[in-house]
Amino acid sequence: MDEKLILKRPDSQQAIAPMNRYEIADKPGRKRGRLVLSALFLGALGSVFGSKEGESEPAKHDPNPEPVGPGQPSDVLDMSGALGAIEDAAAYVQGLLQDLAFPDEALPSRLGRLRSSVRLAFDEGLPTTDLIDERPYKTSARPANDNGPQGFDFPGLASFGSSPSGRVEDDDADDDDGSPGGGDDDDDDEPGGPGGPGDGDDDDGSARSNRLPVVTGRNVLANGLMNLSAVILLNDLLANTVDPDDDRLSIANLTVSNGSIRAYGEGMWLYTPERGDLGEVTFTYSVSDGTGRTVNGALMTLMDWPANEIRGTEGDDVMRGTPQKDIIAALGGDDIVYGRESDDTILGGSGNDTLIGGDGNDTLYGEAGNDRLYGGRGNDILFGGMGDDHLYGEEGDDILLGEAGDDYLSGGAGNDRLFGEEGTDVIDGDAGNDLVDGGAGSDRLTGGSGDDTVLAGAGDDIIVAGLTADETRSASPPASDGDDHYSGGEGHDTIDASSAQETVVIDLVAGTATGAEIGSDTIESIEDVIGGSGDDRITGDENCNTLIGNDGNDVIAGNAGDDTLIGGNGDDVVSGGAGNDTIVVVAFDGSGEADDDGNDSYSGGDGIDTLDLSALVKAVLADMDAGIAEGDEIGEDRIEDFEIIVGGRGNDRISGSRGDDMLFGGNGDDRLRGRDGDDVLVGGAGDDELKGEDGNDTFVVVLLPGTDDGDDTIDGGDGVDRYDASAATQAVVIDLDRGVATGVEICNDRLSSVETAIGGKGNDIIVASNAVNFLAGGAGADIFVFRSLAALANGGEGRDEIRDFQVGDRIDLSKIAEAIGGLAFAPFADDGSPTPVNRITFYHETFSDSERTVVRAVIDLERDEDLEFLIAGRHALTEQDFILAAIETAAEQQRDAV
């Protein structure tokens, strides 16, 4: 029976492995056969060795001999008289071997034998016994690394039951004294082998020249395991080497491609792989027959360990893996799982889990729930799954996939790949040359330091350029965030360089973004830009861009498209270019208080452009004609080519140009002046004073949430001017005759030189004046009032018109009826008969593109005082559409109620 090597560890586990083993396992009855074979073979050889003459003095013990193979001469025997007996004994033994050990199959050849080595593993400096060297490997529990940074020292061979001499020992020779040949060595210098002295094979007695060992192929050793040491036997290395002279062979100059190897007793070497190594390892060595040498090699493949499977429960588990590869399924509940060392696979299952990969190249699946995943050291893969997850790649070249939900992804150090996929995600690539892909949703994406590629994907995304706050606070912050490529993809996307302290130059036409802190970046499909604190230069393209300079003396050009431009603090130069642009003036310091934003130059350019001062809290003076905008918060700015000005929350004074302008006062008691042109003036909240002056101006009531319009004073000036209360949701009374407009929402406005009125969504009353009026009631059951014949006559200048008469509306002529002694409705007559006096009748007029209804009041028989007004569209009027009674009319009752 082969000698056993037993390795102990504190937990009393043990592994038993043969010191020299060439077959997988003993077949039944083989051990008994070996005893018989040994006895027969020794008996056969007894006649030969018994004839040896004399006994030589034993050789001195060499404490560090070179391992030798079978066949190297240690003494010379005269075998001329016994060769036949040896051959007969060998034939008889071989036949017996077939009967006893291999009754059903042929004896395996030398090259076909399975070669194996003793495997040794150590945990914290002690031998582990988890692994029994079988083919294939079988493990009950996986051993820890035996080549870690602490290292270990193998115990002496004496503790394993082997001889400390380091020499090959012969199990079958009881009289072996430790020499390689198993007997006395009287003449070490004489060449051995069949051609040596005493060999009766040469008839003429002359010495034959030595033949070198022959290599039949590179040896393939049994597979090893990662981080597990192996003992390699002499016979493993000589398996594919034969000597034509049958000399003893030895090994020298043994080296290995990876790891380390050292002699470990007689005919054995200890190989320790590099930590974490996998794959093929090459051993190179020379084979000597005592006279000459040849070179051979051997291959060993280092395999990974099979994974341990660990299963949780449906509750809230706290689980910890082993130092080796694990597959951990946490299942339900809010679990905490730590994979530890090696390449682990962790599945969180349902619940809000915390998964920590630890060392190794781990794969983490958050699955359902709002999970937190930490990759740790190594090149990890993290899947967030459903829910709003937090994924941290940490060290290594990691892959992070947020999947469904609004996720946060942080790559950490290394060249990472991060994919937000669905949801509104926040992704930080951090250090390294990262790939950041936002996927669907409106995401916020940061490449971090390194040469990154950021793909925003679908949605309105924000791509952050420059160093992050954590990077700038580090002990050795990088000079820039690298030379990156940013692609906005679908949606309206923004590049945000607000963290930059020095100048950045961003040109959407050229597709470049450069600066000391952001590097030299290329950009595409980006619509909006946010500058930093330096003197930035920002250029838009043909799209509708939003360009923000922030602090510094910035130069911003919108170019084509309907752009929104914000200079920020500093003396900025902002030009809108082509398109209907909006230039916004914002003046706040770091604490949110209003501050002077500098002396800026604003140019609207072509198109209908807006100067927006709505963010200001103090009064401003803005005059388009004079080209100035001044105030405590905005300094002294120059303005040109604007058609719209929006005031702030102060008591502003805003004047238009000689063209068609729109002036909006905002909050506060504002004074608006339209000047020439057909202007639109909006007072906003507060008691405003609005003057249209020349042109056909419109005064619009705008109701802000939680406020009323205030008591405004409105003077239309020259032209046909309009009072528009269409924003009112409750009833209003607009009396152009008396010059008032009242209502819960519009308060009490004074009107002068206003010819047109538009009601709101309530049941409104609109009263015509003596001028030519255009009246529109809007939604609701409205009443149009004509108080006098003069209101219909209009001084001969033209006829009044009701623009939106509809079912439910009525026309109040009761005051005229009272003045002339009554009015009655006369249906439309198509027979040509004359209409009696004091009658109201109607007829239709048709044009190429429209129709209208003409209402006529017949006053006398001569028809020279007949009066008419118009209703847009074709209407079949009835008596119910008029109020003709000379009493307090419903119109007056409603007016009194208002």
Automatic annotation (TrEMBL):
Keyword Secreted in annotation: yes
Annotated stretches, region: Disordered: 51-79, 130-211, 430-452, 469-495
Intracellular or extracellular location(s): Membrane; Secreted
PROSITE patterns per UniProt: HEMOLYSIN_CALCIUM
Pfam families: Cadherin_5 (PF17892), HemolysinCabind (PF00353)
Signal peptide interval: none
SUPFAM superfamilies reported for this sequence: beta-Roll
Record's compositionally biased regions (Basic and acidic residues): 52-64, 482-495
GO cellular component: extracellular region; membrane
PANTHER family: S-LAYER PROTEIN (PTHR38340)
Name listed for the protein in its UniProt record: Cadherin-like domain-containing protein
Organism: Ensifer adhaerens
